[in-house]
Amino acid sequence: MELIDSKRFQGAARALARLHEAVSMDNLSEIERDGLIQRFEFCFEIMWKCGKDYLYDREGLDVASPKKVIRCLREVGIFSDVETEQALKMVDDRNLTAHTYDEEMAKELAERIYSYEPLLHDWYRKMADS
Questions:
Q1: What is the DSSP string of 20-79?
Q2: Is residue 1 pLDDT above 50, yes or no?
Q3: Per its UniProt record, what SUPFAM superfamilies does this chain match (predicted)?
Q4: DSSP of 73-125, one letter per residue?
Q5: Per-residue buried b or exposed e for 107-119, using 16+ beta carbons within 10 Å of the residue's own CB
Q6: In whole angstroms, what is the distance from residue 37 CA to residue 65 CA?
Q7: What is the structure's pLDDT at 50?
Q8: Which domains does the chain have, with CATH numbers?
Q9: How far apart, in whole angstroms, are the C-alpha atoms of residue 110 and residue 64?
Q10: What pTM was estimated for this model as a whole?
Q11: What stretch of H or E contains 4?
């Protein structure tokens, strides 16, 4: 089965669409902001796993962690150096999502998610197109 046809890849498309809905909203309430963070969390999780599947299916690489997946995606041309740095920051921010009870951290994280959303879409598109 082609990667693009996999359930995980199709799930990633849905997760990206839901994240896009959230970043398209203005003046988020606290609950909406928390929903944005949760959508980012889910979206990132499925995207790094799609990246893992991509590396295994297309490159024969068996990579087990999000940061290693991102570095390998740079090596195979999915990410530029700049995109790699931003994607690695996404991993760190994903790990911070457990601390969204900290109001200031939640605000800062939500702001960064707006810049991550286009990268997540590009990541998906590049894997789908190759």
A1: HHHHT-SS--HHHHHHHHHHHHHHHHHHHHHHHHHIIIII-----SHHHHHHHHHHTTSS
A2: no
A3: Nucleotidyltransferase substrate binding subunit/domain
A4: HHHTTSS-HHHHHHHHHHHHHHHHGGGTTSHHHHHHHHHHHHHHHHHHHHHHH
A5: eebbeebeebbeb
A6: 21
A7: 97
A8: 11-129 (1.20.120.330)
A9: 27
A10: 0.92
A11: none
- Token digits for 104? 């200031």
Average pLDDT of the segment spanning 51-64: 96
Average the pLDDT over 69-94 and give the result.
Answer: 98
**Which tokens is 121 given?**
């879409």
Backbone angles phi, psi at 112, to 5 degrees: -70, -30
pLDDT at 100: 58
Between 114 and 103, the more confident residue is: 114
∠99-100-106 over CA atoms, to 5°? 125
Tokens of 37: 């963070």
